[in-house]
Specification:
Distance between the termini: 76 Å
Strand content: under 5%
Strand order of the largest sheet: 1-2
Helix content: 40-55%
Shape: globular
Structural class: mainly alpha
Largest sheet: 2 strands, antiparallel
CATH superfamily of the largest domain: Cytochrome c-like domain
Oligomer: single chain
Order of helices and strands: HHHHHEEHHHEEHHHHH
Radius of gyration: 27 Å
Amino acid sequence: MVMILAVMLVMLVVVSMLPFLAKRLSAADVKKVDGPEKKEPPVTAYWNPPDSLAIPATPEGDLIRYGRELVAHTAVYLGPAGKVNQTTNGMNCQNCHLKAGKKVFGNNYSAVSSTYPRLRARSGTVETIQKRVNDCIERSLNGKPLKDGSRELNALIAYISWVGKDVEKGVSPPGVGIWDLPLMERAASPEKGKLVFDEHCALCHGTDGMGVKNENGKEWKYPPLWGEESYNTGAGLFRLSRFAGYVKSNMPNGATFDNPILTDEEAWDVAAYVNSMPRPHKTFKADWPDISKKPFDHPFGPYADTFSESQHKFGPFRPIKNPKATLGAK
């Protein structure tokens, strides 16, 4: 009798589970037909800059506001007709550091305060924020460094530090700097890049690439991409990967990192075109004391490898970054 009751109990459990088992089997069959189950990509919390309206109404806040003004309107204060001094090429810091250094993947300042002082391979030294700011002025603005202790240098540092005030020390938040583009299998083409420039860039920067001035005649509404008033050959944007990543997530107007307009190849090619055009040539002899630390796309030799200067400038870059893998593939 006990045996009969046990058998009946097992049968009742099996019957009650049939709908659930059928549902699981049906789902398994669907997976076999449709392939692996799709998963939603993880949501990343990108860096959120502080609101400029929150700058305190204090003497320190006044210095921060002056620093923001210098970033947004550098030429008015430091350009060829600057009212403080005349030491830069007339571009604004904001022409490269978009939205006064507050745009995600717009060459922003989010991690400057959190990661400086830091050892930089380019100089082979531990650099301060002061050194980093003056590097930009000498290279991207083709100018002369600001004096240590000057109100202008102190204001720039105060503003840049305020922009990154909520970033934990030692951290580079998501959205910092410039978007990293995947490498192409071929070299970037200035010839193809000219076609991209003519279609997407010339409307703002001019067919001659010389930019368009603001109404005040002192600043650039659209900065020059080459020529004597543009960044020099020591600037970070003269590296192809930096210019291509910057363009991909910011250009033409309206583009963002999550809603780009150009393809990856178009971004690489237009970077090759722009950086093949004439611009101020400036040599920084102290750069890269250890040449083995040079980036794969540093456009000037000597190098610790046997790849040509042309390949270091235009690519293909994959063999330079991982020559052993390239040899293995052969």
